[in-house]
Amino acid sequence: MPLTSRFAKTLAVAALPLALAACSSGSTDSSSHTSAASQDKPAKDPNAGLMTGTQLKKALAPASAFPSHLTAVKDGFADSGSEFMSPQSRSTAKPDCSKFENSTWLDVSGYKGGVSFAQGDYANQDQTEEMTQELDAFQGTTATDVMKNVQAAATACAAFTDLDDHSKVELAGRATPGLGDEAYTITVTSGHWESGTTLIAVRVGSTVATVMSSAGSDNGAANAAKLAGNLADSLKAATTS
């Protein structure tokens, strides 16, 4: 669209003597061209290289990765689609330990999720055993920060009180080598529960996979490890293809 404003016309008149002077001297100002070129350079897309929710959905573990007595939960699957969401700022408030008891527990990091996500839940008929998976893609180095904050929250919440039955809940976390770029496993138990829960967070590049499992007599540990490994492999394959 042509510039017709008074301000634009004033700039054009003021630039004319400078243009004539440049022609008479036979010299050019290369720095001005360099500056203009740098201004025309498009800004880097902060979401470049990240997977959309639609792509993350394809990276979720299939039904065959879950115990046969667990089935997909109705309305337990969701994703952010083909568009990226605005990045969420991190809450610096004290970790809410009760979030470790949620099926989607990434909130303990202070982040409510990435710029894209996909999730899916499986459970037995009476929902006494459950397994969940979630994938979140983050801009820049945020995924690394998420992992650091998960570990910090686990340390801060080594013991807390369950909000429902007011029982004492104990939490133990440990780094888990050989899984993704980095991984952290958390076991949540209480003397009032029949079985505990295992949580695993795995980072592959800029994506964090979070797993929750209460399926099995070992606090869900073996099934959680299997699911986390499946997600890590799936993300690696997706990012290298």
Give your account of this protein's structure.
With 241 residues, the chain is of the alpha+beta class. The protein is 30% helix and 23% strand. Strands 1, 2, 3, 4, 5, 6, 7, 8 and 9 form a 9-stranded antiparallel beta sheet that branches.
What is this entry, summarized?
The protein has about 240 residues and is α+β, with helices and mostly antiparallel strands. It has helices spanning about 5-25, 30-40, 55-60, 140-155, 220-240; strands at about 70, 80, 115-125, 130-135, 160, 170-175, 180-190, 195-205, 205-215.
Topology overview:
Layout: H1 6-25, H2 30-40, H3 53-59, E1 71-72, E2 78-79, E3 116-123, E4 130-137, H4 142-156, E5 159-161, E6 168-175, E7 182-190, E8 197-204, E9 207-213, H5 221-240
Antiparallel strand pairs: 1-3, 2-3, 3-4, 4-9, 5-6, 6-7, 7-8, 8-9
Radius of gyration: 26 Å
Task: Please outline the major beta sheet.
Answer: 9 strands, antiparallel
Through-space gap between termini: 42 Å
Which stretches are low in confidence, meaning pLDDT under 50 for 5 or more residues running? 1-28
In percent, how helical is the residue content? 25-40%
Number of DSSP helical runs: 5
Order of helices and strands: HHHEEEEHEEEEEH
Helix/strand/pairing category: alpha+beta
- The average pLDDT is 87
Strand percent estimate = 15-25%
Write down the overall geometry. globular
What is the β-strand count? Answer: 9
